[in-house]
Amino acid sequence: MKAARFSEFGGPEVLEIVELPEPHPGPGQVRIAVRAAGVSVSDWKKRKGLMDEELPQTLGYEAAGVVDEIGEGAAEVAVGERVFGFCLDGAAQAELAVLSSYAPIPRSLDFAGAAALPATVETAMRALDQLGVERGSTVLINGASGSVGSAAVQFAVARGARVIGTAGPANHDYLSSLGSEPVAYGEGLVDRVRELAPDGVDLALDIAGSGVLPELIALTGGAEHVLTVADFSGAAEHGVRFSRSDDGRALHVLAEIGELTEAGRFSLPVAQTFPLADIAQAHRVSEDGHVRGKLVLLID
Fold this sequence. Notes:
There is one protein chain. The protein is of the alpha/beta class. It contains ten helices and 16 strands. Strands 3, 5, 6, 7, 8, 15 and 16 form a seven-stranded mixed β-sheet that branches. It has a six-stranded parallel β-sheet with strand order 11-10-9-12-13-14, with helices on both faces. The radius of gyration is 19 Å and the shape is globular.
């Protein structure tokens, strides 16, 4: 089968499409003929050698496609069913992939829309779970217009929280459409938030990693009320929790996202799609960082 891989660390030019042996599902797993695979920030960080040291490496942790092989004990799934989910061995950007966690694709979504979901919605839901966002909470989300940020906004709103989200002025109307009260990021953030919430906020979630943890601590009244998914060094410096997937993944979101999507309470735009052969360009766009929505590879 064809799959994306790199055999040395470097720029997008080190990516190649190679022939690899077909994978097969183990107990509780399914194999899919991949139709679409999500592109995440972790992909280009791996490619640059910022995460794993071994070589060569395949790519991709999320995919959508059609079940073509079922492992022993895999429940409530049939060959031919459309599913999306996680490929924990990091080899989803390929013609075939094994999913360890999966769910039926919501009827209103195509393969690209479904492949955009897993990593984004799991990160957002895990952060809200760990932060303790619930009905009646006022939560500030720093970096609310990106894919993870917009997912977090929608999940928090669905829980009944009041959401204040930071973004550039060009994205304020978008945040308002999601149910968030937008504020501009940058100098003077604390004052702008206090204009909306004079007593501060209950909780704060940092998704942008833009060095604002001290301001978020000031607005919430303590580091214990702040969580970041993007600023590891800042979390250590300021005593803020850094959300890790190995702290407990929010896999329950895969089963829940369909109902929210079909009810019109959740959407995640696909910013751009690329054929698998153009994976290097997808990495360039991802690394540039100016994407609202998700980048997705399409596999014929």
